[in-house]
Amino acid sequence: MADTMLRGGEYLITETNCDDVFTPEDFSDEQKQMGETTEQFIENEIVPHLEEIDQQNFDLVVKGLKQCGDLGLLMMDAPEEYGGLELDKASSMLVVEKIAYGGSFSVVYSCHSGIGTLPLIYYGTKEQKDKYLEKIITGEWCAAYCLTEPGSGSDALGAQASAVLSEDGKHYILNGTKQFITNGGFANLFTVFAKIDKQHFTAFLVEKSFEGLVIGAEEKKLGIKGSSTTQVILDNCKVPVENLLGEKGKGHKIAFNVLNIGRFKLGAGVCGGSKLALATGIKYANERKQFNTPIAKFGAISEKIADLTAKIYASESLVYRLAGLLDDKLETVEKGIEGYYDEYLKGIEEYAAECGISKVFCSEVLAKTVDEVVQIHGGYGFVADYPAERYYRDERINRIFEGTNEINRLLITGMILKKAMKGELPLQQQAMKAFESLMTPSFEELDESILFVREKELIKNLKTLFLILAGAGVQKYMDKLANEQEILMASADLAIQIFALESSVLRAEKIYNTVSERKRGLLEAAVKIFAFDAAEEAATAARKAAFYVEEGDNLTMILSGVRRFTKYDATGLLTAKRTLAGAACEEEKYLF
């Protein structure tokens, strides 16, 4: 456990010690073995059948889920008293990362073991768990989650599905249509959200065999074709009253808490997808020759490989730093106490902003990765004979899953500002100090003997810049800032880059003295490359926010601050890129 436990969002105003972050290098032998077992399973049992799976041979998918159950991969979050493993989040995120190598199957797995199973674990009664949980965590039954409707996606609480108590009081009668339901075609148990008496948003456990449950046709999708996506139609569906999940009218708690978990796990999954796609791109670049030279040797291609390696390093660093934050927080919740899962979920909700950051940043790194891998393949990347084409199609959904990236950006800034307004984060006081520094020039010389001192100075300055812009936004709009989505999204971009860059630097600093001289050079290169990109991204976001919020002299002053606080000396950047790309091409894989 970290010596100092930061609250959610506190990274923006506090300097973190590298010894307080969890990194992939901290995995225990047991965790590494779990990751290796998962990777071997995917390689041996799923990858050989990817084409058949993408042709919707769901028998193979269901078989794969059962095999996951046999290996214990479906029971990581389940309590031990029900046969589960109740593992830490770092372990479950590592497994999700390795499952990602299985293409569409990873979507089936993630839905089943995540949003399909967790509502029952966290909110189910003893009787409900006795009846269903063993079937779910062994893979005997498949699970699905029914929240979205044709007219309500991001506005989950705008759902129109209804539930009415039957005259004899033994059943709720559900009516409505659920849209885009993953695993819909073969699931046995559905977590369905409906409004009792058109008013009380509530969750229900609905078996496939229940009268009135109708499964729609398979959607014809752009990607993830090997997963089942259907409508689930509730036509006077009779659900026993004892299958009401949680409390009447409290379905929003289930929906939002489970989505927080889905977001950080999606971050881990797409990180795994990025590593796979990068390795594919590197191998092709080494094999493909033009002008009698492997294209990997050309600067135009090697720069792509270097940039992607650095971004994936940041993605991985961010994901497992978040895993450590969650695990440290959850360790403080005493097992066996009354209301254990309420406290457990509050612990996860504490880092809702960071969960959103994980989802947005990592999914966009994957998007960049697969796009460049197609580009490296040239025309061959556009045909289905090469995996780059499938990577490209499958990637796109990740910026929509678990709340769109736009919604998550709004939530990131909204959660941080909400904490500030509740007095949980002293953002107002820190913003005032930041404004003072804006008007006070700094002539302090950097101590170049300090490891990663330039990057640390950049992180400190970006935090100051975030506080300046957030403070200006609050001062101008007060509680109406929540309606200024363009400002919130620009601020979120700044917060995202800060968390990603700081995670990268802290990881490199923590492991620097434990690795070889060659590995140190690669770490330095990855950090420099990503810091340059992060500074550019942050500058763009900050300039937008400044123009959105201010005008006149105040705008001029803040724009001057943007230039000052996003300044980064990336001397040696080209050498760093060539070093990183050369090593990646030599090993033909993601390096870290």
UniProtKB/TrEMBL annotation:
Annotated Acyl-CoA dehydrogenase/oxidase N-terminal domain ranges read 28-140
Signal peptide segment: none
- Reaction(s) the record says it catalyses: a 2,3-saturated acyl-CoA + A = a 2,3-dehydroacyl-CoA + AH2
Instruction: Give start and end of each Acyl-CoA dehydrogenase/oxidase C-terminal domain.
Output: 249-413
Q: Which residues form the Acyl-CoA dehydrogenase-like C-terminal domain?
A: 461-564
Q: Which cofactor does it need?
A: FAD
Q: Which UniProt keywords apply?
A: FAD, Flavoprotein, Oxidoreductase
**What Pfam families is this protein classified in?**
Acyl-CoA-dh_C, Acyl-CoA_dh_1, Acyl-CoA_dh_M, Acyl-CoA_dh_N
User: Is S-adenosyl-L-methionine given among the entry's keywords?
Assistant: no
Residue span, Acyl-CoA oxidase/dehydrogenase middle domain: 144-237
- What's one GO MF term for it? flavin adenine dinucleotide binding
Subunit description: Homotetramer.
Question: Family, per the entry?
Answer: Belongs to the acyl-CoA dehydrogenase family.
What is the protein name for this chain? Acyl-CoA dehydrogenase
Whose protein is this, by species? Desulforhopalus singaporensis
The lineage is:
Bacteria, Pseudomonadati, Thermodesulfobacteriota, Desulfobulbia, Desulfobulbales
